[in-house]
Amino acid sequence: MRELTTMELNEVSGGLFGNLGAGVLGGVAGLVAGGFKGAATGGSTGGILGAGILSAGVGLLVGAGLGLVGGKIYGWVNGAQQTLKVFNRVMEGLFDPNLPAPK
Fold it and tell me: Which of 33, 43, 45, 56 sits in a 20 to 30 Å window from 15, CA-based?
């Protein structure tokens, strides 16, 4: 049995499981970013009798759903390393109150 080169090793280890992991990570990042952005955008419309609260809830659900699907596709297409960068940026924005809402 021969020893694998670095390029061959990356191809073997980053195959199906790398793409699945990137899809899951992208889905989580999209869910968080989409829900946060959707709720903030929907809630900014305001209105009388609590209509802003209702639109924020709808924005949260729609944004989270679209972010989940879009994040999974992003993870599958771009791979684990790029998706990890996006995930870290989303989480840093979530935990740092001085940063604006994730885009």
Answer: 33
